[in-house]
Amino acid sequence: MGAISDDYEDFETVASTAAGWAEEDGLRVFGRQELLSELADLIRTGYAQAYILSAQPPHTRVADYSEGRADDLWFLLTAAGIRALNELDAQPDGG
């Protein structure tokens, strides 16, 4: 959730960010399929949204998510996702 909490991010950036955090914490790096599944869950629960970004108006359009399109989409947490992330961060163990 943190990887898409403050800006639109493409899948490559999400994967790279998650891998960096896992390595810093001494955890195994998540595989592509695991990350795709997590993104799908976040979107399905209303915590994230997929978008198509364009240099031409409209600059952002909500997009239907599918794993096959993941490399062509951008992702961002919704307001509900930001609230959920903040609740996780507020837990004594840091979520």
The CATH top-level class label:
Mainly Alpha
Distance between the termini: 11 Å
CATH fold naming: Arc Repressor Mutant, subunit A
Please report which band the strand proportion falls in: under 5%, 5-15%, 15-25%, 25-35%, 35-45% or over 45%: 15-25%
Count of individual beta strands: 4
For the sheet with most strands, the description reads: 4 strands, antiparallel
Q: If classified by CATH, what would the architecture be?
A: Orthogonal Bundle
Class computed from helices, strands and strand pairing? alpha+beta
What helical percentage do the residues reach?
Answer: 40-55%
Helices and strands, in order, run as EHHEEEH
Radius of gyration, taken over Cα atoms and rounded to an integer in Å: 14 Å
Structure explained in plain terms:
There is one protein chain. With 95 residues, this protein is an alpha+beta fold. The chain is built from 3 helices and 4 strands; from the N terminus they run βααβββα. Strands 1-4-2-3 form a 4-stranded antiparallel beta sheet. A hairpin with a 6-residue loop joins strand 2 and strand 3 (60-63). It is globular.
Give a brief outline of the structure:
With 95 residues, the protein is of the alpha+beta class.
Index terms:
Arc Repressor Mutant, subunit A, 4 strands, four-stranded antiparallel β-sheet, alpha+beta, 95 residues
